[in-house]
Design brief:
156 residues, mainly alpha, Arc Repressor Mutant, subunit A, 3 strands, 62% helix, WH_DNA-bd_sf, MarR/SlyA-like
Length: 156
């Protein structure tokens, strides 16, 4: 048993929390007729166009998997490949106008659902949770695949 008396250790809590967030992502994706991976792709591209190599690194996908993901999302009219102005052999992936709208809606719905998860915590506990998880993420060099809602509000 841990100090809180709930019997859940850090490993179990992190694994279960990841399943919880993945379930929220999947629910939002279904609502917008996306796969969770397409939802991730759209959220990453909200920051701007990416080259395929950088996009693969951020999403943690091999080249063939990324190509398939971009192909499917492009067929749905949500992203497009555009020539890279600095390298004529390369392309960058960007949101289409429709993709930008869907990304914004998907992002807002997902943020709302994730923000509700710790609803039973006091403000100080929520702040502590965010601080601790933030330290874990930074210590493990996790790429930013989901922009913090505060950043979106202040940059738009």
């Amino acid at each position: 048993m841990n100090a809180t008396g709930d019997g859940m250790g850090v490993v179990s809590a992190l694994v279960r929390a990841s399943f919880l967030v993945n379930a929220v992502y999947a629910r939002s994706a279904r609502e917008y007729d996306l796969t969770p991976q397409q939802g991730q792709l759209l959220c990453v591209l909200m920051a701007g166009p990416y080259g395929m190599g950088d996009l693969g690194a951020v999403l943690g996908l091999a080249k063939s998997s990324l190509t398939g993901l971009v192909d499917r999302t492009e067929r749905n009219g949500l992203v497009r490949r555009v020539p890279d102005g600095r390298d004529t052999r390369a392309v960058r992936v960007s949101l289409t106008p429709r993709g930008s709208r869907v990304a914004g809606e998907f992002y807002a719905a997902t943020c709302r659902r994730i923000a509700e998860l710790p609803a039973g915590l006091a403000d100080a506990e929520r702040d502590a949770l965010a601080g601790l998880l933030g330290r874990v993420v930074l210590a493990n060099d996790v790429p930013e695949v989901f922009v913090d809602p505060v950043e979106v509000r202040t940059t738009n």
